[in-house]
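The protein record quoted in full:
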Amino acid sequence: MVKLIMAATGSGKTKNIIDLVNEAAAQEPGSIVCIAKGNQLNFDISHKARLINVQDYSVSNYSSLLGFVAGIHAGNYDITKIFIDSLYKVACDDKPEDADQFILALDEFSSKHSVEFTVALSGDAASASDVMKKYL
């Protein structure tokens, strides 16, 4: 399952991700991962969840981000939920058509490996692509 949180910049998407990560960390029996760009969430995310700063790795596009996610899962099969904050920033790509392909690949990965994804991205939900609307 893939769930998108899509709203304008400054509307509280990151706060929503923080709350969802912390709630999942408190309730889920499996491992929780949050992927973000930068260290701004270090003190907000529960120590029970794994916070990963993609700037520490060579993530530079959607393809490398998908490989990164697969590698994280390969290293820990207990992961039940992965959260991605600010998708366009994490992937270094703000083209919706590229994001569409990534979201479809995440959905396939989710089905195959039983991992739930919650992804936050900036944009007007009313003008989201058909692919994105399916996951809102």
Remarks:
- The mean pLDDT is 95.
- DSSP finds five helices and five strands in the chain.
- The radius of gyration is 14 Å.
- The CA atoms of residues 86 and 121 lie 5 Å apart.
